[in-house]
Amino acid sequence: MSITDVKLDEKIKQKTDEPRRWKVIFLNDDQTPMEFVITCLTEIYKHTQEIAKKITLDIHNDGSGLAGIYTYEIAEIKSVETTTLARSNGFPLQLRLEEE
Description:
21% strand, 3-stranded antiparallel sheet, 41% helix, 100 residues, alpha+beta, 3 strands, CATH 3.30.1390.10
């Protein structure tokens, strides 16, 4: 039997998983102004004014609202950026990351 006679009976399968996605959720509080939340949603999360207003009303009426769904790294960066901006403006805005 020579080297050219060797046959592979199995194919090597590569399994690649898509990165898990994470939701960035804004939580309602009584001190953070709606205008500030809208600003965060338009500047950090790149929503239009109309969508940002709808999310803000969801936060106000339901206690929380979905800002976006991202890979973990991006979700974490955006949530830290939002929290930092809120604290620097004296607001207690809180966010939560949830696996999708």
